[in-house]
Amino acid sequence: MGIAVSPQIHPHVAEFIDQPRKMLINGRWVNAASGKTFPTYNPATGEVLAQVAEGDREDINQAVKAARKAFDNGPWRRMTASERGRRIWKLGDLLEQHTEEFAYLESLDNGKPLNIAKVADVPLAVDLFRYMAGWATKIEGNTIPISAPGFLAYTLREPVGVVGQIIPWNFPLLMAAWKLGPALATGCTVVLKPAEQTPLSALRLGELILEAGFPEGVVNIVPGYGETAGAALADHPDVDKVAFTGSTEVGKLIVHAAAGNLKKVSLELGGKSPNVIFKDADLETAIPGSASAIFFNHGQCCCAGSRLYVEKSVYDQVVEGVAEHARKIKVGSGLDPDTQMGPLVSEEQMNRVCGYLESGFSEGAKAVAGGHKSGGRGYFVEPTVLVDTKENMKVVREEIFGPVVTAMPFTDPEEIVPRANDSEYGLAAAVWTRDIGKAHRMAEQLRAGTVWINCYNIFDAALPFGGYKQSGWGREMGHDVLNLYTQTKSVCARIA
Ligand code: ADP
Fold it and tell me: Which pLDDT value is given to residue 1?
């Protein structure tokens, strides 16, 4: 393929996408059982970037079989925690050594700026693997003093088993790391399905996984569509747990599909996060911080600060400040070093975002920055600030997953908590104020899995992330995530 490639492309990446990419099953790179492939596109041009093996139920069956065998009988099972940890650490090192190449792949497949992928996506994934490598040797049970005399009772924390992991397209590599890191640290085996829009970096990571010395079948990677490969993984009777990141709508389908064998489920879903600026905030940081809260990754973040609430006396100043940031953002191809915002991931996503803009305008919203598709070829949308929005509008209630923020004033600080919490989602929230008491009271009252104070989008492998309400089940990262991949066994022995 390679037809949409610019001359400046990284040579290893050019080579990687030149051949149809295969799937990783049982330590080997294989074609789909059906022989089919599907295209992945360069969103900056709309052209085909590469062809990828199209996994379906039969491939998922093979991958689950390999993961089952590796979990039940393979060398992985007998490996010490320290040996597991060393392999995960090595994977982090290998990834770091290939930072440039992975940043190119992410930029080409997802559209995000190369320079951002280099300093955010890849290093965060490296950190995640290193953090999780350390946990492998620290997964411990307890001794329990039970009431009856003459017994020794203790708990073991054991891996949950074969895990199906389904990930989205907004941070393709980082989401693969968030999923694989804890599964491998706890001794699970994995079938990973990357998003059909962005399968390339996970497939390249698969090569490094083999190089890092994970035994065959421990990690299987099956690209394909959600309704086929994804659904086959979610309802597979031999999968012990499914971990999903994506839309709330598909999250609900996963829950239904998992019911057949009552597999464990963890979900990281949508958001419509409130970002609250009080009049006593340091506006010099709150304004750029709030622009970045929505425009980072083109608004394609489940935790994007998409509902901006500003105390009335500073509302005009903040809205104009955020709008000015929006107007100045340089939108273009991710490979252009001057680009600050690339295209959205797909034509479908672009049309979805533009549909929301239309809906907002028809309900009376106005754009003070952006408001349209931009550029010719490629899936570009202008960074947009909407005003005159009301709480009942679709653009305020629903997740747009694009570079669109709605700005609304508030007068009484007491009213803002219920307004901020008035959402079916509860993934993240932010508060900007110099009053530390108010900041922490707000942090307590906001129904969200993450609350940022005087900052936004600060992530760390050690800091749990996940949703209240319909934003999900469970927490990823931090030591919390280990609960998602282990189960507790109580052992009780009569000793007297
Ligand atoms: P988006 O709408 O933002 O593309 P999705 O929730 O549709 O996000 O996709 C996230 C991931 O879920 C992708 O890997 C996709 O292939 C997968 N997926 C989509 N539909 C299903 C489904 N019915 N069952 C399992 N996985 C699915």
Answer: 37
